[in-house]
Automatic annotation (TrEMBL), chain A:
The keyword Transferase applies. Belongs to the class-V pyridoxal-phosphate-dependent aminotransferase family. Csd subfamily. The keyword Transferase applies. It comes from Streptomyces bungoensis. One of its GO terms (molecular function) is pyridoxal phosphate binding. Residues 31-406 form the Aminotransferase class V domain. One of its GO terms (biological process) is cysteine metabolic process. This is cysteine desulfurase.
TrEMBL record, chain B:
CDD domains: IscU_like. NCBIfam families: SUF_scaf_2. PANTHER family: IRON-SULFUR CLUSTER ASSEMBLY ENZYME NIFU HOMOLOG. GO terms for biological process: iron-sulfur cluster assembly. This is Iron-sulfur cluster assembly scaffold protein NifU. It comes from Streptomyces bungoensis. It comes from the Bacteria. InterPro entries: NIF_FeS_clus_asmbl_NifU_N.
Length: 418, 155
């Protein structure tokens, strides 16, 4: 078996994930390489979620009975865990949403309804990049259409990096918000935060970072990033679906208006007007995803027990191995950085003229789960003149043997369509 | 092996050597996409009365979507509209069968090469690939022959 320096003890870790023992298609062992879409859930998280429903289930922040108090303590305890995990200065800066898309939409809507100096209107500009997930494109297109603001973006270089050569023309005095992805879900690129933040701060623009593909895979420190907002989602980091996070700087959350109105986000309500609860509750209208937040808290405990720096080292070693092995496959072209430097563990590629759907189908028959298509980042496919890609993405439980299985599987694909 | 039931030799042949590919003169043109996977087709129809004189197309996508367009061209060109509609409806029925229809002789007579797609109906994610060009043809026909009834349908 291939041994690489920096690998985690996957044999032990994989015992925490019952689903990884599944066999599919008449006895094929599952090789799960679709972790950028969603990660698998360890028993420790599943146990916490069942225990919540079996022992503590109640609505939060209301009611004086035992269960309501326990549920509230667990839900708010999860907020503490998230705050610590991302090194937030205050737990009140952590807003629970249903996913990263909702987090990004929330920022766009806060700014659309904001007063000066944050207000986005027809005299201002919004900046994104060409490698964004649709969830960090469409909310800004909507905001631009509704306010008349101009939407601008950074293009990409041929090797899958952001082209920042014209940064002073893209981010200008008119820019109100710069929103970009920390690690691309399709290219795998890790973006240079510092250069973008420095320029944004120069012109007084806010910075929003989509950390959906970073939070699960590396230490995330919102203070070090120096961003104003950071969004990510729970189900890509061993947590359940239905829970996302928006971190925002406290003074902004105090100043900016709410988006969704309803229960729990208010202070007082009359038939004429209402006043609002302080953040984060101001942005959490209605019954929140309680068990999901608690599940995310458990996922964070699980990741912390392993260590985010060790997870990063593991995935880096796997990525180095994967780009080396994939280079041996004839006609395979990696879309994105071709080395493991400044990149995450999601690797997109094309295989000759064989359409990714056909690649994915033949791999699936061998038990290998990859993602095919445009990965909700269609502009990237347009940029590189390809209809779609096949993407393999790794996580803390992935192994070199699974990469070997992928490479063998791709040989089979080539023979099948050859 | 299960996979061979999807990738029938007939399908792979049509994929590698497509019939009637390329855009030619037509009475109506439509562009359909499969948003989940990015398969695209631009398709034109040309009618002589109710006879299908030509179905021309250009597109990109997986072997299933491209082969299906090729089979459509082979089957429908030269047919009368009523016969073509019967073929389209039979193909739709087969593709929506979730693998439960085993094509009999009568169905095979109607569908010819298109019966090869029976195996695809077992793969929900791929049914839309197979139907893309057929939905585009239906849409283009409605536009060419009955503007008022033109219904936009994305496969």
């Amino acid at each position: 078996m291939t041994q690489l320096p920096g690998l985690l003890d996957t044999e032990a870790l994989r015992k925490d994930f019952p689903i990884l023992d599944r066999v599919v298609h008449d006895g094929r062992k599952l090789v799960y390489l679709d972790n950028a879409a969603t990660s698998q859930t360890p028993r420790q998280v599943l146990d916490v979620i069942s225990e919540y429903y079996e022992q503590h289930n109640a609505n939060v922040h209301r009611g004086v009975h035992v269960l309501a108090e326990e549920a509230t303590a667990l839900y708010e305890g999860a907020r503490d865990k998230v705050a610590e995990f991302i090194n937030a200065p205050s737990r009140d800066e952590v807003i629970f949403t249903k996913n990263a898309s909702e987090s990004l939409n929330l920022v766009a809507n806060m700014l659309g309804w904001a007063d000066e100096p944050y207000r986005v209107d027809h005299e201002t500009e919004i900046v994104i990049t060409e490698m964004e997930h649709h969830s960090n494109i469409v909310p800004w297109q909507l905001l631009a259409q509704r306010t008349g603001a101009k939407l601008k973006w950074f293009g990409l270089t041929d090797d899958g990096r952001l082209d920042l050569s014209n940064i002073d023309e893209v981010i200008t005095e008119k820019t109100k918000i710069v929103s970009f992805v920390l690690v691309s879900n399709i290219l795998g690129t890790l973006n240079p935060v510092e250069a973008i933040v420095r320029r944004a701060q120069e012109v007084g623009a806010l910075v929003c970072v989509d950390a959906s593909q970073a939070a699960p895979h590396m230490p995330l420190d919102v203070q070090a990033l120096q961003a104003d907002f950071v969004a990510f989602t729970g189900h890509k980091m061993c947590g359940p679906t239905g829970i996302g996070v928006l971190w925002g700087r406290q003074e902004l959350l105090e100043d900016l208006p709410p988006f969704l109105g309803g229960g729990e986000m208010i202070e007082t309500v009359s038939m004429h007007s209402s006043t609002y609860a302080p953040a984060p509750h101001k942005f959490e209208a209605g019954t929140p995803p309680i068990s999901q937040a608690i599940g995310l808290g458990a996922a964070i405990d699980y990741l912390n027990a392993i260590g985010m720096d060790k997870i990063l080292a593991h995935e880096h070693a796997l990525t180095e191995y994967a780009v080396k092995r994939l280079a041996e496959v004839p006609d395979l072209r990696i879309i994105g950085p071709t080395t493991a430097e400044d990149r995450g563990a999601a690797i997109s590629f094309t295989l000759g003229d064989i359409h990714p759907h056909d690649v994915g189908q033949v791999l699936d028959e061998q038990g290998i789960a990859v993602r095919v298509g445009h990965h909700c980042a269609r502009p990237v496919c347009l940029r590189y003149g390809i209809p779609a890609t096949t993407r393999a993405s790794f996580y803390l439980y992935s192994t070199p043997a699974e990469i070997d299985a992928l490479v063998e599987g791709l040989e089979h694909v080539r023979n099948f369509f050859g | 092996m299960k996979l061979d039931s999807m990738y029938q030799e007939v399908i792979l042949d049509h994929y590698k050597n497509p019939h009637g590919r390329g855009l030619r003169d037509g009475d109506a043109e439509v562009h359909h996409v499969n948003p989940t996977c990015g398969d695209e087709i631009t398709l034109r129809v040309k009618y002589d009365g109710t006879t299908i004189e030509d179905v021309s197309y250009e597109g990109q996508g997986c072997s299933i979507s491209q082969a299906s367009a090729s089979v459509l061209n082979e089957l429908l060109v030269g047919k009368d509209l009523a016969d073509a509609q019967k073929i389209q409806e039979t193909f739709l029925e087969l593709m929506q069968s979730k693998g439960r229809i085993e094509p009999d002789d009568a169905m095979e007579e109607v569908l010819e090469d298109a019966v090869a797609f029976a195996g695809v109906s077992k793969y929900p994610a791929r049914v839309k690939c197979a139907l893309l060009s057929w939905m585009a043809w239906k849409d283009a026909t409605a536009q060419a022959l009955g503007g008022a009834e033109a219904e936009r349908k994305t496969a």
